[in-house]
Amino acid sequence: MASHAQDMTRFSTLASLRPPRTAVAVAWMIGIAIPLVVLGLLFVPWVQTAPGTGQIVALDPADRVQQVTALVPGRVERWYVTDGQSVKAGDPIARVVDNDPGLLERLAAERAQVLAQITASEQAMAVARIDVGRSAQLLADGLAARRDFENAQIKVAEHGAKLAEARAKLSRVDIARTRQSAQLVRAPRDGRIQSLNTAAGATLVSAGDWLATVAPESAVRVVELMVDGRDVALVRRGQPVRLHFEGWPAIQFSGWPSVAQGMFDGRVRSIDPSAQASGLFRVLVEPMPGKPAWPGNQFTRLGSRVRGWIQMETVSVGYELWRQLNDFPLEFQRPVETGPRKGAGKGLADKDAAKKAKPAKDSAKDGGEEEK
After folding, report:
1. What is the mean pLDDT of the chain?
2. pLDDT on residue 79
3. What residue spans carry the region label Disordered (predicted)?
């Protein structure tokens, strides 16, 4: 110490300098923070996640938004509903009429005419069959020529062809009447009218043109997430998912799920085997049993945007930073088998027995060669 004090006396300017107390405090803080940061990077856990964005959809296809189309060509004569109106299955939505207002009456008259033709053909057929029987009897008695009998048979065949043609025409008329009578378009299921094609009231519509859109009000909801192809290979059915619904206040920490607020739990229901046109894979997420329910329909409607984080393996913070900087994929751990597979012990025993039997067989073969 004495030598150190003597050395300091040689540098009078340096000895007169005194560092500020603030600088000393900052230096101590930096010196303590660096080891803590290193320890945190090495030992603090971090939950890896596969992020994705998507929307809320109905699980049952019948509960999704449906378009009601015109069944026959024509024009909309009357609307029975308005935008936003609730409807039940079978309620009328619109009435489509043909451009010819008297078409149904003419079809009815044509049907009556065809029925009269069928009745006349049936009577003529009955008379022709009687003539065939009479001609056959006269031919057997030798009182009529064979030509008369053959002409009677030809008349029966001609009346049969006319009767078949009349019945086919009746079928076509009935089909036309059925199609034209389907002018009243009805709601396919319970729901609410989302939009109407009001332009159909002033223009001609064809069969299949949409008239209205019906959206169901109650449906089993799931979340449709679009996940990158690099991450979807590690996603398995039943994995937990954290969800943030659009318009719902939330604070998300993907690595520390217990700290997040306003998030909801789900689990992976299914994964599409092929990618969408955008190159992303669709993952369906259902509510997690035993966890708080998702927000109600008034807060999260069908089609609302959702952000999700599929929870993967737990690693250290330092490894996660290193992975992100190097753009490496997520960590993957093969599931550990809880017990031996069926037949595995038997196969090993058979292999051991074969190994033991092989030396004995070789020794017997060598002994036989020596005897020779």
Report:
1. 76
2. 87
3. 334-372
